């Protein structure tokens, strides 16, 4: 058995506003999520659902995950950047070198993302959201491969990447060193047990793979919070 990746969820001070920003950048429609909150549904069978949840916490440190958005030409890269800026994004400096051709931006709540120039062979065929690029160890890449049943498509020099068997966005981990964790992460995965499994059994399976239960103050809810081997929070939602 494996889990189904329901969504990548953002903690947001203004969930509606942040959803509309990303809807504009990605050219998607907003919708109500079946588990609550506002979402951007996938635009094809391999797309990544985004979910925006209310939070009072302000962003204070770089995220452990960011999008690498792909482009088809230098003009297309420029148009993507211009559209993001018009919608409320901004340029940021994270130490990128002048000769690097990707453009680093932040959305209106400071969530980092990159617009990658054309010709990136690693992201070829992955769609507009080419990758969710993550801080993480080789061990955590192996964990998520087993958790989701997604094969490893890169495993070299402690860097790993996985991708759905149907294709689409890759999830990558850059290997050590990892930044010290400073509070709850603002982005997390929401999982749903696959058909034929129940929530309790799936939680037990994920724990056997290296996850651990976590308390983030969620109280009595019908979803469970776990952390992966690197301490990244994620949620296991009940089947609907």
UniProtKB/TrEMBL annotation:
It holds the Pfam family Glyoxalase_6. It comes from the Bacteria. It comes from Streptomyces gottesmaniae. SUPFAM superfamilies: Glyoxalase/Bleomycin resistance protein/Dihydroxybiphenyl dioxygenase. Residues 125-239 form the VOC domain. This is VOC family protein.
């Amino acid at each position: 058995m494996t889990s189904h990746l329901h969504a990548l969820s953002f903690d947001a001070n203004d969930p509606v506003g942040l959803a509309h920003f990303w809807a504009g950048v990605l050219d998607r429609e907003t919708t109500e999520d079946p588990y609550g909150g506002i979402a951007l549904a996938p635009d094809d069978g391999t797309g990544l659902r985004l979910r925006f949840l209310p939070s009072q916490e302000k962003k204070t440190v770089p995220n452990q995950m960011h999008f690498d958005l792909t482009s088809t030409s230098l003009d297309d890269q420029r148009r993507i950047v211009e559209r993001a800026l018009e919608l409320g994004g901004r340029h940021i400096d994270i130490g990128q070198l002048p000769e690097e051709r990707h453009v680093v931006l932040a959305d209106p709540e400071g969530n980092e993302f990159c617009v990658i120039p054309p010709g990136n062979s690693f992201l070829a065929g992955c769609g507009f959201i080419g990758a969710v690029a993550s801080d993480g160890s080789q061990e955590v890449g192996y964990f998520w491969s087993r958790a989701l049943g997604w094969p490893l498509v890169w495993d070299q020099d402690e860097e790993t990447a996985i991708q759905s068997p149907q294709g689409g966005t890759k999830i990558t981990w850059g290997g050590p060193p990892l930044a010290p964790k400073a509070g709850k992460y603002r982005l997390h995965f929401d999982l749903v047990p696959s058909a034929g499994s129940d929530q309790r059994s799936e939680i037990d399976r994920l724990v056997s793979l290296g996850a651990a239960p976590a308390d983030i103050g969620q109280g009595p809810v019908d979803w469970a919070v776990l952390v992966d081997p690197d301490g990244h929070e994620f949620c296991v939602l009940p089947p609907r």
